[in-house]
User: What shape does this take?
Amino acid sequence: MGAEPRECVPEKPVRRRWTRAREWGPLTALTVGVLVGAGLWLAGRRTVADVLWAAATVTALGPAAWSTLRQLWRRQFGVDVIAVLALVGALVVREYLAGAVIAVMLATGRSLESYAQRRATRDLRALLERAPRSARRRSPDGGIETVPLDRVAAGDRLVVGPGDVVPVDGTVEEAATLDESVVTGESQLVARAAGESVSSGAVNAGAGFGLRATRNAAESTYAGIVRLAEEATAHKAPMVRMADRYAAAFVPFTLVLAGLGWLLSGEFVRAVAVLVVATPCPLLLATPIAIVSGLSRVARRGVLVRDGGSLELLGRARTLMVDKTGTLTAGRPRTAETVVAPGGDRDEVLRLAASVEQLSPHVLAAALVRQARDRGLLLAEPTEVTEEPGTGVSGRVDGRLVRVGQLTGELPEWATRAAERAELAGRSVVWVSGERGPLGAILLEDPVRPDARRTVRRLRGAGLTRVIMVTGDRPVTAQQVARAVGVDDVLARCSPQEKTARVREESRRAVTVMVGDGVNDAPALAAAHVGVAMGATGATASADVADAVLTVDRLDRLADAVEIARYTRRIAAQSAVVGMGLAVLAMLFAAAGRLPPVAGAFLQEGIDVVVILNALRALGGGLRRRDVPPDTRHLLDRYAGEHAVIRDVLVGLRDTADLVAIHPDSPDCLPALREVHHRLAGQVLPHEAAEERQLYPALAGPLGSDEATSTMSRGHVEIRSLIDRIGGQLTQAGDGPLRGEQVTDLLAALYGLDAVLRLHLAQEEEDYFSLRD
Assistant: This one.
């Protein structure tokens, strides 16, 4: 069976029983020993009880002393030295019950830590358990063979059966239904059309389908995620640095206070009592549990963080440096507009271009083919296809010679206007030409992610004070994206060396996070305090050097991670400070002779349980997200999908406005105006009315009030007013021609409606995306 989950899972019954025995066995044995000793003591057999309690103390002393000696050998000085001194002191003054209670306390803390760590890392282990080991590959003779995953190469044709895990990144050869929740975090099934890309790790939720591999297993998305998960689970997630910072002051204070209590009273038992209540489980156990819990939470949000130190730094970050392409923008070009020669057919130009580009590996070619398929255009199989790097592709489609790419020579008037429009908007131009000259121009853009602006605002709210965009793109394009997302500074035309140098410069001023997705971002990610890679795009080079990887193709999950990291760090510090504060208070009573060792041991046990339970609060809370009912999410998906139709209407609206502006006397003017008004009234207005009736009331709860959608409702009013204005001018025009004052008013209405509609769609999509899980 190809690409099935691992057969040997760590949580099989035998191993699960062994894990539980290892977690709770020492605690159970020591607790039984203490209780049996108590029974013997009450029965009058106090010598035997003392022997039993002393044995429990020595049992705990051995591992604690060995751990302390190893730390001292590595020239590390930690808080666990106090636990060793307390156990030794209890034996010296023959306070065996106190020593046994300390032993139970240490065993309780270790068991809780082990349990919390196992619970917190189960999301990461689930990734390892699901990793595919083999794949079904089509053989040259037409058969299907099962091969080890490391033998799959780019270009191989594979078969993914029902329920199989997609073994490598590739493109589907026929329609497929996939569960991508493990890779992307999205719970709903996703339909992929033939030719679309899929990431390894997704589960086939429908019928079997063919897959053409585009990467081998080692370079695929899921392999990178699994590598990071293995590293994350291999790291013990301690707050070593935080604990040692506290230890630098707490251990000397404890020893001085114990010494003073002994010196001033002459009773060594007071020193032992101080050491007993000073046993630092809040530092040794509670803070690591909080951090491991935080690691688990960010993993469930689609962010894998390598270790607790990186999570702690993420929670202290003040500066964010972010790459543009693929991070703030989608990283995949899309068709923004198709401009055709006078009398041309927009769909035909796109069909011809996409047909020729079907065999090209270029990223712009993929955008053209995807757009044509989205519009339902039937692509023809090209012949005589040739490609010249840097120039373009040429071939024959239905017997016609078609060239797609650059255009040389003098441009006709319409093409000059299209080129100027693309330059001003920061878009790329792909020219489509025939034997007699250019047929049209396809303007491509790399759209800003709909969650980018809101993510930047959330990051500022979480405590980041500087947001800087770095990119190798042109300054004009960079400035447009910067204004759209609201960053503080922009560095355009940046080489990888310049990016790295700027990251180092910012890192000297404050804790700095660098986010990127490409191979050229890898040096900058390595130089930052916390490097975050957009792993869902399959950029394995950047993911390998990063401290965290977004396994979901959503930038807003970075804001989730920062909010969780800050909350986790706050819980960890709270557990440490409250626990040690209570311990210090108890230490003062012990030094004054008011708290004997046995009572101090039981009191410290209670303090430890309280702070450990508080640390487990890091498993929830801290996220400023709004709950959206499933029915409302369904409405969001529905109306967001209808925006594609409205954008298609916008293309015709802009073309009609240009026609009225340049050739108002043309006989084509009035028919074009009537057509675009028909589409506005028949497609746009019903969409807006349905939103007002169904969607906006449903959003009142998640957004807090009806007022939250008032600006979008006001946009609907303006859109209807402009459409009615165009309709009124058409009524007055009759059979034409258009009068001068009508042309002026129509141009104001047409161009105004184009601007208002584009802004309205952008606002809605930003809000829709932020509310969809």
Summary: The mean pLDDT is 79. Residues 556-591 form the longest helix (36 residues). The domain at 303-330+449-564 is CATH 3.40.50.1000 (Rossmann fold).
